[in-house]
C-alpha cells in the first residue's frame, strides 16, 4: 500500500469477506450472551497502558468487552489490519513520509511532542512561543498603557480553537486566584461570542491571540478586526495596539499588515494539520494557562501514546483496537452514530473536538486510487458530558429506534462522594445500555411498586429497553495534563488506523474548502454562483437587513 498502484480497496481483501460473515452471525446475538460464552471476556477484551515512570501502574484501561465482538471476529479484524498493511502505514507515519497523499506531505504532529523526528521545514521550534507564553503567565508583558496583560482571548476556529479550548477547560484551575491569567476562546463569527468575551475584559489588560495558519480564515479575521476596533475605541487609534496582539500563523506578512509585530508571530509547520495542532504553537493559550511543567506533562502523555502505538503488537495496541472497533461498528454493523460520553465536566468540549477529528478526517468516500468506497466510513459523532446527558439524550439510546456506538471516557479522580457517584453512573449506564430490560423484568419492576395486575400489563411495554448498544469504556486514573495527552493522542491514532484501512486520507479536508468557496462567491454576489433557493434566501436576508436599518433610523 505504498502507492496508488499497490493499493487494494479493503472490500477486496479476504478478511473483509470473513468479517461480513461474522457481522451477519453476531448482528442479532445479545451482547450479554457473549459474556455467558466466555466468563473471562472482560479480561480477554481489555487492554492496559503502563505509566512509563511507574511500570505496572496503568495510565489508561480500555474495556472493549461490551462491543458486539467475539474472538473469531477480533482475529479477522487483526487479519484485516495486516492485509491492509497497517504496520507499513504506522512505519511511514512515524518516518515522516507523505501519508497525507493528496497534499504530498507528512503528517508528523507527533514531532511537536517528541514522538518522532521532525521533517524538514520551519515551524517546529517552539522556543520563542514558549518564552512569550511564560512571560505572559508571569505578568511580564504590558499593553499600550503599561498595564499588565492578564487576559488572553484566543481568536481561531476549527483546530485553532477546539484543541486548546478543550485542554484549557480540562486543565486550567477555575478562576485561577487573584491576578491569575484568564483565558477565553472565540470561534463563532456570530458577534455574541466575541461580545461576551469582551464584556469580561479590560481593554488595557487584554491580549488577543489570532490563530490562523494562513492568516486568511474569514471568520477569524472578522473577529480579529472587531477586536481591534474595540481596542482602538477604548485605548485610542494611536495607542500602540500591536502590544495587544500575537498570532499563530505561517503568513507573517499578512499578520504584519494587520498590525502584529513580527516577533509575536509564531509559525506552524506545514506537516501539522489544524485538528492536530494543540501540541504546537497553537497550544500557546494552554501553555500560558497551565504553565511549562504541566504543558510538558501534556506533551509527555501524547509521546507515551506515540511510543505505544509505534511499537506495540496489534494484539496489545490501544489505538489499533479502538480503530478496529470503530471500523467494525461503522462498516460491518452499519452503526452510523458514535456518542462520546466523557464523565468529567473538564471534558465537556471533548465531543466537539472529537467531531472535528473523526468527521473532518474520515468523513470521505474517495479512496487512495481515486475510486469511490463501497463501505460506510466515519460515523456521525456527537455526545455530551455525563451525568447531564442522562437527563437528556440517553432516553433515545435506551428506547429509541437508532443504534449507536458509545465511548465512555471516565477519569476516576479523587475518593469524594460526588466523584464516586459520577463514576458509578458511567459504569451503570454502559451496563444498562448493553443489557436493556425485557418485558418480564419490566413487569417485575412494576409489581415491586405494588401496582395492580391490569396496570402492570398496561405500563410494562413502556418500561422495556432493547439494550444491545455497544460501548467501549476508557478508564483514566485522573484528569490531569499527562492523562489528557494520552487520551487525545489515542484518538488521533485511532483515526489514522481507520483511515489507513479504509484507504482514505485523514489529513486533508477538501469538502470544507468547497463550503468556503461557496461562501466567498455568495458574499461577492457572483452571478450564477447560487441555485434558485440560495439566491432567493440571500435576497430575503438583505430585505431583513434593510428593514433593520430603517427601524434603527
A few lines on this structure:
The chain is built from 21 helices and 11 strands.
Output the keywords.
3 domains; 553 residues; six-stranded mixed β-sheet; Rossmann fold; five-stranded parallel β-sheet; 21 helices; alpha/beta; single chain
Folded structure, characterized:
With 553 residues, the protein is α/β, with parallel strands linked by helices. It has 3 domains: 4-84 and 312-510, Glucose-6-phosphate isomerase like protein, domain 1 (Rossmann fold); 127-292, 3-Layer(aba) Sandwich (Rossmann fold), CATH 3.40.50.10490; 524-553, no CATH class. It contains 21 helices and 11 strands. The strands form 2 sheets. It has a 6-stranded mixed sheet, sandwiched between helices. Strands 4-3-5-6-7 form a 5-stranded parallel sheet, sandwiched between helices. Strand 1 and strand 2 form a beta hairpin. Helix 14 (350-362) packs parallel to helix 19 (481-502). The longest helix is centred in the last third of the chain and has 22 residues, at 481-502.
Topology of this protein?
Elements: H1 14-26, H2 31-37, H3 41-44, E1 46-51, E2 54-63, H4 71-83, H5 86-94, H6 127-137, E3 151-155, H7 162-171, E4 182-186, H8 191-199, E5 206-211, H9 218-235, E6 245-248, H10 252-258, E7 265-266, H11 284-290, H12 292-311, H13 318-332, E8 337-342, H14 350-362, E9 380-383, H15 394-399, E10 405-411, H16 417-435, H17 439-448, H18 453-459, E11 471-476, H19 481-502, H20 510-524, H21 532-552
Parallel strand pairs: 3-4, 3-5, 5-6, 6-7, 8-9, 8-10, 10-11
Antiparallel strand pairs: 1-2, 2-11
Helix pairs in contact: 1-4, 6-11, 7-11, 11-12, 12-19, 13-19, 14-19
